[in-house]
Amino acid sequence: MGEVKLTIDGKTITVPQGTTILKAAEKVGVKIPTLCFLEHVGLKNIKHDVGACRVCVVEVEGRKDFLSACNTPVEEGMVVKTHSPKVIAARKLNLEMMLSEHHLDCPVCPKNGVCELQSLCAELNIRTIRPQGEKKNIPIDDSSPSIVRNPNKCIICQRCITACKVLQSVDALELFGNGYEAIVRPKGGVSLIETQCVNCGQCALVCPTGAIVERDDTWKVWDAIADPNKHVVVQTAPATHVTIGEAFGLPIGTDITGKMVAALKRLGFDAVFDTNWSADLTIMEEGYELIHRIKNGGVLPQFTSCSPGWIKFLEEFYPDLIPHISSCKSPQQMLGPIAKTYYAQKKGINPENIFVVSVMPCTAKKYEAARPEMNAASKFWNNPNIERDVDVVLTSRELIRMIREAGIDFANLPEETYDPVMGEGTGAAQIFGATGGVMEAALRTAYEVVTGKTLQKLDFEDVRGMKDIKEAAVSMNGITVKVLVAHSLGAARQLMEKVRAGELKDYHFIEVMTCPGGCIGGGGQPIPTTVDEREQRIKGIYERDKNLKLRKSHENPEIKAIYKEFLKEPLGHLSHQLLHTHYTPRGK
User: Fold this and answer.
1) In the CATH hierarchy, which fold is given to the domain comprising 130-214?
2) SS3 state of residue 132
3) Is 157 annotated in the active site?
4) Which of 59, 116, 316, 368 is catalytic?
5) Strand partners, 174
6) Where in the chain is CATH 3.10.20.740?
7) Residues 3, 76, 373, 461: which is the catalytic one?
8) Are strands 79-81 and 57-60 parallel, antiparallel or unpaired?
9) In terms of Cα–Cα distance, which of 577, 575, 553, 544 is closest to 239?
10) Are 569 and 289 in contact (CB under 8 A)?
11) Annotated catalytic residue: which of 146, 278, 307, 326?
12) Which of 316, 397, 412, 582 could be joined to 196 by an S-S link, Cβ 3.0–4.6 Å?
């Protein structure tokens, strides 16, 4: 590739051919503002540069019109002015035009404080809105249990379309109409719940305004905590251990486990449990299921089942491959029924009065908890008054809002510990939060169960990292167990096409995480969630694993206790009743 020489704001530089003006300007220390541009949509090889917002326009000598810097390649001898009076005026006018049609209810908007449109207005010193446009009045789409769409706040940047179509290959959104009439909507103009949306929330992560946000269920939790008849318990997902602190000024990837537990107790929860505990339980059930399939000619490769967006993706697009999915529920959905059966019995609490809350990095977990088959506790007790195993799912962002609402000084909280019965988690469970973590945790246990030997090296580095598809092979008693790991549904689609074609029949286990980076990049995580932030969170996940005393699921004493006292054995009758499920073909 050749080199191109050009001048930017009086400075002459040489950059590789194909470089955009935006990137060339960065090399001379010039920041050009952007709004619709997004360099990495979840993965480094996916970017969004449609040039729709016209906020990044620049002046180029010899050109009549301004050019968008985000998607205009440099040319030999090009002379660019990035902050001339004409350019600044054009950017402000473009921004004011957006604001003229925007519903300016910023103080009550869910994105207040993390809104890119709001931040850009401050950066460009917008103090008046000269054009007065007509405000749209399109009904809010709250049909989904996970995502709420407010088309009136949409600036037609189309980032959500790229995240849904290119990154996730779901393609549930479209740009419809032209000019002022243009809208981003679910395909076909139906409500979101009627599409093949998998509730992953990657659209909400990249939306620069409040046009797509998670459904807020914090009020349900406040009501439950205030009810003296409710025994309100909460569980926290592995990924939350290293992400909640970001919102309170702590470095990305910081282990805030103890502070998070302290905050939850101050919010008024009666018991605080760790989803890492049920992740260990998941490994026991899923690992034994894999061993059973290998030994008894079961359907292989077995697919992991703990990522609900991935499950719905398979149900929608590959229903013929459903027999490959592990029947294990996710850790969230294992802890729910155990809280309302085993824990209720141990504590002598009426299960009708136990209210289970989950704190998850994932918007799809809201959908998962609402699935009709997730009512094992009701069936166990034969009690229709127990409607759901998990009553409410909060995203990381919702918990952050509750902590702020309660006036808790999170950064200066003491370290506190989880409550017993379901409060002990191992390092194997902790790494569930990163892509490859479920696979690595399963291999740690499966190896020792199958061989009867102690695993000398616990770190399976081949399944770690941000490469979209990874593979490894592990020898166990003469059997070479071959595994694959994919994160993002675009990568999952590549693997599913190969499974469908019979190209992966020699593999035993496939892990799929819906979101890039795994749960640490979930749709309910703190904003922004860039590729760099995903990588730093993953480092925090593995650092916590390394520092924990117990690093293998089958060594967890509380897991041993529940099998001894209640479940009896993995894959047993009671395990199947409470911890396993079935799936629904949905494809159109």
Assistant:
1) Alpha-Beta Plaits (3.30.70)
2) coil
3) no
4) 368
5) 185
6) 3-83
7) 373
8) antiparallel
9) 544
10) no
11) 326
12) 316
Q: How far is CA 429 from the centre of its chain?
A: 17
Active site residue 306: yes
Give me the catalytic one of 358, 470, 519, 535. Answer: 519
Q: Note if 503 is an active site residue.
A: no
Which residues of the chain form CATH 3.30.70.20? 130-214
List the catalytic residue out of 306, 328, 362, 515.
306
Q: Is 350 helix (H, G, I), strand (E, B) or coil?
A: coil
Q: Cα separation of 533 and 361, whole Å?
A: 14
In degrees, to the nearest 5, what angle opens at C-alpha 564 toward C-alphas 562 and 568? 90
pLDDT grade for 588, boundaries at 50, 70 and 90: low
533/248 Cα distance (integer angstroms)? 15
Question: How many angstroms separate the CA atoms of 98 and 510, rounded?
Answer: 45
Mean pLDDT of 230-235: 98
| Model pTM score | 0.97
Is residue 365 flagged as an active site residue? Answer: yes
Per the rule left: phi > 0, alpha: psi between -120 and 50, beta: everything else, 173 is beta
Alpha-carbon span 360 to 416, nearest angstrom: 20
Known active-site residue 278: no
CA distance 258 to 245: 11
Please say whether the beta carbons of 358 and 299 come within 8 A: no
For the chain, how far is it from start to end, CA to CA, in angstroms? 45
For 551-578, how does the pLDDT look when each residue is reduced to its tens digit (9 = 90+)?
999 999 999 999 999 999 999 999 999 9
To the query of whether residue 373 is one of the catalytic residues in this protein, the response is: yes
| pLDDT for residue 130 | 86
Q: Is 368 a known active-site residue?
A: yes
451-478 core/surface letters (b: 16 or more CB in 10 A; e: else): eeeebeebebebbbbbbbebbbebebee
Distance between CA atoms of residues 586 and 588, nearest Å = 6
Q: Which residues pair with 469 in a beta bridge?
A: 486
State the catalytic residue, choosing from 116, 214, 289, 424: 289
CATH T-level assignment (fold) for domain 3-83: Ubiquitin-like (UB roll) (3.10.20)
* Residue 497 known to be catalytic: no
